[in-house]
Amino acid sequence: MPPSTARAHCTALYDSHARPTFLMSDLATPLPRRFDINPKPLAFSLLLIALGAVYLAHTVSGRQAALYAVGALLGMSLYHAAFGFTSAWRVFVADGRGAGLRAQMLMLAIGVLLFFPALSAGSLFGHPVAGLVSPAGTSVVVGAFMFGIGMQLGGGCASGTLYTVGGGSTRMLVTLAAFVVGSVVATAHMPFWTALPSLKPTSLVTTLGAGWAIAINLAIFAAIAALTVAIERRRHGRLVDEPLRAASASP
Fold first, then answer.
1. pLDDT > 70: what percent of the chain?
2. What is the three-state SS of the chain?
3. CB of 53 within 8 A of CB of 65?
4. What is the C-alpha to C-alpha distance for residues 162 and 168, in angstroms, rounded to an integer?
5. What angle do helix axes 85-95 and 158-166 make, rounded to 10 degrees?
6. Residue range 152-169: average pLDDT?
7. 1-45: pLDDT as tens digits
8. What is the Cα–Cα distance from 43 to 66, expressed in whole angstroms?
9. What does each C-alpha distance from 102 to 105, 221, 230, 232 come to in angstroms?
10. Could you give the CA distance from residue 14 to residue 127 in angstroms, rounded to a whole number?
11. CA distances (Å), 29 to each of 23, 25, 201, in order?
């Protein structure tokens, strides 16, 4: 038997105590990553969440406490899914893999389906709701480029920075501090930015109605997702399976 064939059929045999036999090809198969849970930090985090909810319920309202709990659950979901806007765009631009962008399009589509009907009706569960419609103009263009550059240099967007810091990443504290400083500076000279040329504020829900607004947005999201599929298949020949990534990685 040629050496290459022998290596291909190499087995790891155990002794006679009914231990299993593994083919080397089986050992080469990647196994799902196991995320161990550290009980002490988990218990401390749950305690802080519970205390915060109780405090808000007594000092503000039960509704605020519920919103606090929802925010905590969203943070946990983002952290364990390692979901963030920055890494998805970075991976797509650098390597042509679009799974992260398709996940973002799905998230936006669900948000549109949930919120547009409520915005069109003007109320939800008896409470008035309204969208914050702002004009797109020079300040948006400049701010978008600055924010994109900052996300890449800092290693995270707003949500990614927060949930990564919450997960114990000390290096992201620097990004968070810079984020706060930049926000304060921008607020100080906000009149300058709002005075720059801009388009008229437009709401698709108000102008076209909820139905057409939903249809247009879903079509745009589907087109972006399809574009990522086409680019990924052209570059890699197929849709690349995303490797399982540790939750502590950059968002």
1. 80
2. CCHHHHHHCCEECCCCCCCCCEEHHHHCCCCCCCCCCCHHHHHHHHHHHHHHHHHHHHHCCHHHHHHHHHHHHHHHHHHHHCCCHHHHHHHHHHHCCCHHHHHHHHHHHHHHHHHHHHHHHCEECCEECCCCCCCCEHHHHHHHHHHHHHHHHHCCCHHHHHHHHHCCCCCHHHHHHHHHHHHHHHHHCHHHHHCCCECCCCCHHHHHCHHHHHHHHHHHHHHHHHHHHHHHHHHHCCCCCCCCCCCCCCC
3. yes
4. 10
5. 110
6. 78
7. 554 444 444 444 444 444 444 443 344 444 445 556 677 777 888
8. 20
9. 5, 8, 12, 12
10. 67
11. 10, 7, 54
Residues, the chain: 251
The model's pLDDT over 133-157, given as tens digits with 9 standing for 90+, comes to 888 889 889 988 888 888 878 777 7
Q: Residue 34 is encoded by which pair of tokens?
A: 């196991």
Is the overall model pTM greater than 0.85, yes or no? no
Measured CA to CA, the distance from residue 30 to residue 44 in angstroms comes to 33
Phi-psi region of 18 (alpha: psi -120 to 50; beta: other; left: phi over 0): left
Q: Report the amino acid identity of residue 137.
A: G
The predicted pLDDT at position 242 comes to 58
